Structure formats: C-alpha cells, structure tokens
Prior knowledge:
The complex is a heterodimer. The N and C termini of chain A lie far apart (about 35 Å). Chain A has 5 helices and 5 strands. Chain A is globular, with a radius of gyration of 15 Å. Chain A is an alpha/beta fold. Chain B has helices at about 1-15, 90-95, 140, 220-230, 240-250, 330-340, and strands at about 20-35, 40, 60-70, 75-80, 95-100, 105-115, 150-160, 165-180, 185-200, 205-215, 255-265, 270-280, 290-300, 300-310, 345-360, 365-375, 385, 395-405. A 16-stranded antiparallel β-barrel of chain B has the order 1-3-4-5-6-7-8-9-10-11-12-13-14-15-16-18. The longest helix of chain B is centred in the C-terminal third of the chain and has 14 residues, at about 330-340. The interface between A and B is large, with 36 and 42 residues.
Amino acid sequence: MNRLLVAVFFLVTYPISATADIAVIVNKDNPIESISKRQLIDMYMGKYVAFPNGDMAVTYDYEKSHPLRGPFFLALTGRNESQINAYWSRIKFSGKVSPPQSFSSPSTILESIRNTPNAIGYVPADFVTGDVKVIYQIDD
Amino acid sequence: MRSVFICLLFLTTVSYGSDIDFSGFATLKAVKTDSHTAKIRESISQPHGVERDELDFSFSSLGLQAEWHASDNLELVGQLLLKEQHDDRLNNAIKLAFLRYDLNSNWQFRAGRTGLDLFLMTEYRDIGYSMDIEHPPVEFYSIIPHQNLDGVDVQYRTPLDQGIASAKAYWGRSKSPIYSDNEFFWNVELKSILGVAVQYETLNWLFRANYTTTKAANEHEQQKQLRDALAQVPLQVWPTKNELIDSLYIIDRRFTYSAVSMRYDDSNWLLQSEISLTDSNSSVLNHLKAGYITLGKRFDLNTLSFTYSVAKSDNKPSVEPGPLVPLPELMQIYEAASMHSGFYQLDQHSTSLTWRRELNPTLAFKFNWKHTTADHLPSAFYLHDTELFSDPDLSFNTFTLSFNWVF
C-alpha cells in the first residue's frame, strides 16, 4: 500500500522538464494510428475537434500554470502561453467552442485516456505506458 | 431571457462536479482625455463619458462564465458581464445564456442568447485580454451597440487542404441601450435579424465576410411625440413636414450590415483589417462606411501596435427645410427632429498606438494613446459638454491604461 502511495505521489508531483519529449496519446482502442501536426493544431486550437477519420474528439490539456503546457503549444504553434490564452479567451468567452478539459498532472490525463475511447492528450514521453497509444511525438 | 439564465444557473448549481467549468475575465481601466467638448466613451451604449481633467475608471468590467458539459455533444453556457449600466441592468448583464449542441464534428447548433456575430471582434469586444489593441476601434465598433442575439444559429465547418472553412447562419432579435446628450436613453430593439458569416482560417490567416439584415422593432417616445406635433402643423406653414414625419418613423425600417475582415498573426507580426457598410431604408442612417487597419509587432513579452480607423456617413447635415414661419415652437420641433435625423452624421478618423506587456500568462498591461479628428461635434460616438458647442475642439487626444486578466 505504501509503495502504491509513493508511486502515486511520484506520478502526481513528477517534475516536468520544459525540454522533455512530449507524446500525444489516445485510447488504445482508438483506430487512429497517427495524426498530422496541422490536425493536432486544429484540435488544440478548437478549429476542428475531430480525428482524421471524422470522429469527434475530446481534447485533454493541463491547467494554465502547468509547466508542460507552454512547451507543448510553443512546439505546436510557435506561440507562447500568453498568446494561446489570449486566443482561447476569444473563442471561449464568445461561446464558440469549449477549451480542452484541463487536468492537474500527466497521471490524471493517462488515467482519463485509458477510460475514454475518443480522448486525446499529451504527456512526457517517458510517462507513456502500454495501455495507451502514441499518435504523435514532439521531440526535444 | 432572464428565466433561461436562471435555469442555467440552477442547473449548474445542482449539477455540481467536474462537468462544470467556471472562468472569467476582468479589466481595470483608467481613461483620460484633453478634449473640452467631447466626453469620451468606447460605445454608444455607455451611459457615461470621460471629461477633460477627469481620471475615470468606469470603463472597467468583470465577466463570469459557467459551462455545464451535459455530455460530449451538449453544453449549457452562461455569462454575466458586470460593467457600468444605468437601465435594465440584469438583462444587459446577461451576455450569454445558450444551449450548444454538436451534432458531429461538422455541424453545431446553438439556441438562446448568443453573441451577435456581426463583425470580427463583436463577440469579444469586452474582453480586454483577448486583443492586442487596447479596445476595438471606436469608429468601427462604437456605433453599433448590439452584441447579443436572442435566437438560434447553425454552423457548418469542414477541413480543407490548408485550413478550415465554415459558414454560419443566425436568426433572432436583440436589444441594447443607446445613450446620448441631454439624458437621451433608448433601449433599441432589433427584430427579424437574419445573418450569414463565412470564414476561412489557417493557423496564421483568417478571412471572413458577413451580411446581416434586420428591422427596427421599437422607437423612442420622443420620435412619436415629434411626429404627433408635426401632424398638427398646417402644410402651408411647413410644406416638407410629411417628409420629416416619414423620416422620424423607424419601426419596421430595414437595416443592413455588411463587412469583410482579415487577420494575420504569425506570433511575431500582426495585421488585422475590416471594412463595413451599414445602411438602411430610413433617412436616419445612410451609407455609413467604416474601416480600420492594425499593424503590430511582438518583442518577447511586449507588443506594439498601430491602428488607423475611419467612419463616414452620407447623412446630410440637416433634415428637410424647416417651417416657412419661424415661430419659436416650430423651431424647437425642427431642432429636435434635426437631432434625431442627424444622429448618424459621422465623419471621423483616429490614429492610435498601443503598448501591451504580458505580466504573466494570464495578466496583461496595456497603454494606449489615440489622436482623434472629427469633422464636427456633436458626434454620436461621444457625449458632450453641450455648453461648449460654440467652440468645439475637433481634434483631441485620449490616453488609456488598463490591466486585463483571464482566470
């Protein structure tokens, strides 16, 4: 039990390096094997939230202060966190689209993706386990 | 609409849990001007204007939003915007209260109170954090007070080779206050609003066109009183009175709004521009043309942007010729009618410079200097010190400083 608690604590508080490789993951049963950068941008910018086969997607992100969020969006869009937040404030507060669901840690995203067939999220590459599928990788 | 919003609040309250998101935005703003005639404001729905030698904070605002995710496809959204309002406060504070249903990744339906998708920034013009410029250009955005639609909309979007194309149609009605000099207040109601917006968007580029048509649903009590008074005047004394009566009748008159917009933002450079034509089959509003262009450059956490904006209408400076017999009572009616018919007589341009500094990823500071040149005052954009109309300053500066949050 104590080992489990230590493992959970480690997963929740694991220090995320701003330069770590990032893996974009989906549920293992998701038929999608890969996704293009542009499709990923469309999904995470709320422009077209669907997998390449047209199925609706549920996007998972981190809370605004999380250290992985900035590097992910910078690598994906070339925009810093302030620019991303400004963009989403336009979309969200005009009621067009809801932003991605936000989570506090990679472990909670992993757990939710295991249980949600149409979810997509991103975690540090060394967090990836065998029960999720990597469809895109952002290298350091 | 209040009942819809109360239902939404009830649902979000009883359905506590992780399916509800609460968020918001706030702006703390100070404004100062050197104009001794114009009392500065950013929209004609603002009841208060900033006078010379006054440091004013009344442009500040706070927005609160709740979203209830009933399922992956269905969401309820409510938003309250708290800012200075004198009349019909609760109704004006409810900015959003609608149900959003995504049939699939292409089709989306919304019903309730949504934003009115008139121009590029109409739906988020109150959210200071969302824009690099300090506030939407007055010459383009200020004259149209309506920001919300009580009705329905449907949107279709599809991915193309390089970007996303979308088309949206909306239908409904809208109500918004207009304030003017001499404590003039009119809660303007538009009915039969029917609009179409098409858009093409890539990561850096956005192109958009919109056409909206609507009809006036109500009139100001003063207009009716003026028509009644004019009806009593013999035609021999005032040969053009019937034209004047006709120009004062606004209910069911059709108004149209057309606009094309573009935006380029590659994270270093920003270019945004819109042009619009607002017209009606009433002599009150003829060919109001407006446009602006913004060029901005980002330097790390700082953004400098320059904006030039202009508005010009074809309205004549006065209404039909006045009475042949200039009795004081008739001249009073003539002046009042001239005020109504000349409300949209606009010819103004401004240049402005904005410095935006990111203090952290959810807080930005902005400073704006704007130089405005008007061909005449009074202008519908502003309120005025009416005692100084004999010596109006047609060129003046405005300084704005603000802190803008999202949370």
